[in-house]
Amino acid sequence: MFSLVLSILLLVDRALVPSFALIYAGGNPNPPDLPVEIQLISPPPGAFYIQDLWRIHLNNTSTELFDVYIYTTVERNGFGLVMEATTASFLLPPGLLSLGTVDLSPISTVFYDDNVQTSLEFLGSFPDGVYTFSIYVMEVGGGIIGQGGYTQESQNFSSPSLQYPMNSDEIVDPLPIFTWYPVIPSGYVEYKFKIVEVLSGQSPEQAIHSNPSWFVSENISSEEFVYPISAKAFEVGSNYAWQVQSFYEGSQVGESEVWMFSYTGTEVSSDAGTGIWCFETGGRVSCSPAIAPDGSIIIGGIDGFVYSINPSGKELWRCSAGGPVYSLALNSAGTIFASGDFGMCSIDPSGFLLWRNNETGPLVAGSLILSNGRLYVGSIEGVFYSIDSNTGVILDSFETDDSIVLPAVCDENGNLYFASDNHKLYSLTDDSCLTENWSFKVDDEFVGGPVLYNNQIFAAAGKEVFCFSLHGEQIWKAVVPSQVYSGPVITAGGTLYVGSGSGNIYTIETLTGHNTGVIPAGAVVTSTPAFTVTGSLYVGCDDGFLYCFAPSGFLEWEFETDATISSSPVIGIDGTVYFGSDDFCVYAVSGAGSGAMVEGWPQYGLNSSKNGSFLERVGQE
């Protein structure tokens, strides 16, 4: 009621304005027989700002001089009238007059929607929605002498935020990968990527706005860009500034900060790829290591032991699991859950056996551990178990008709996903018991995944890589030239990588399923790759080598062991790479000095704890 009274007071000494606006959209927004034509300047697609409301041309087709003001109403689809505004009066001579906010001030505004008012006051833009704007030219002391209107969608996007190279980084790779965090909402925008040289005495911001472009690429659909081999080469000792702009339907809707990097040449650090230590066990080590909260490296061996090794390579403790260990995972407290021929066991961070459960039968898959005290694991007997992580007691089970050898994952809503050798991908919930949401059958056995990215599920079967919605619909299927041997991993920018039996690592765009490239490893890829935050890729092969590839796909270095590497590498916070080999040893190798990539699905098991749960990631943020 107060708003209505205030609105009336604002119009004292002025003609009565209409309570409902007739909107003229399309070719002629002006009704006939009115002397003033309103020529609207519709803003570009994207966020609609308050100043856009007052960018108009008035054409006085008469020979009279009018004393006028503008009255505007704003309606939001689904909400009704959300705002009305009245400008100051001004003289309108015959002919065309262009107006803006300054010309029409002071402008009196009445709001009928708190969200609209808050958004305009603090952000300057209307909240997301579709708005109808009705504009009236009112003669002071008279009536309507011109009217028009239009409908406009407001879609607010956050600005892109740069990720790598970090500001002031030194770059050695001649073809580095540039990454940035996506705008929100994602999936609607394209990016423009720009690099300029920073000259002596310039700040990066001055350089980006005044210097000629060193390199520009437009219409980029993902949040990563590999500097192309055809582009102008960086010069050793020079500094460069870079920035990313976002575009919606061809109009710019945001831009990132400006960062700078230095190009120092192509030499790889003399330490990179150098062995730091080798820890010998009593059997093959196919299990992927995990890193405990205290920085120690946890590994299981075919010899039946779980080991804890400090970053210097010294054994802290070993615990008998009861049989060969194939996989393990840690919870946030550092408690270890190991899977193997013996079933499953739990070990506390000091190496004390908490419990062992033989009822599951042999287990190959790693466990998924949630903070609600439950863990989930599939068995080679085809049963998916819910287990009390504190006691080892089986709480519930769900039967398939074939082996489960790949670990399960969990999304942000608590839904569980796993694959069975019966060619099916399953989704379950566990409110009080395990209940199937859906299943999807493919032609071959699943050999990698599932993994999660951008609210979608990715898995590999045979020579095919699949993308599913969280509701079980197939979004796309990509076919690669040879059998997939490794689990898929996904970079922060949304590129998926799978290793194959042909010795190649194939890259696929997660948005479309298009094959985008290949990295020739030269030997059968027998472990799941891992990514550093700078985009370097580590992968083990059956020729006994651990390979490190630059983001551009060039081989940076290699490290040789004496047997096949089927243990997927894990990356320490200081960049050290840890992995096992069939030569009975666990290795620590000097990396490039950067830790594991955080976003995307950058390594086996998602994180260094080998626990593929987005629910846990959300809880830690």
Descriptive notes:
This protein starts with a helix and ends with a helix. The model is unreliable at 1-30 (pLDDT under 50). It has three domains: 2-154, Immunoglobulin-like (Sandwich), CATH 2.60.40; 161-263, Sandwich (Immunoglobulin-like); 284-620, Methylamine Dehydrogenase, Chain H (7 Propeller), CATH 2.130.10. Strand 3 (66-76) and strand 4 (80-86) form a beta hairpin. The protein is elongated and about 100 Å long. With 621 residues, the chain is mostly beta strands. 6% of the residues lie in helices and 44% in strands. The longest helix is centred in the N-terminal third of the chain and has 9 residues, at 2-10. The strands form twelve sheets. Strands 3, 4, 5, 7, 8 and 9 form a six-stranded antiparallel sheet that branches. Strands 11, 13, 14, 16, 17 and 18 form a six-stranded mixed sheet that branches. The chain has a four-stranded antiparallel sheet with strand order 19-50-49-48, with no helix packed on it.
Task: Provide a compact summary of the structure.
By secondary structure, this protein is mostly beta strands. It folds into 3 domains: 2-154, Immunoglobulin-like (Sandwich); 161-263, Sandwich (Immunoglobulin-like), CATH 2.60.40; 284-620, Methylamine Dehydrogenase, Chain H (7 Propeller), CATH 2.130.10.10.
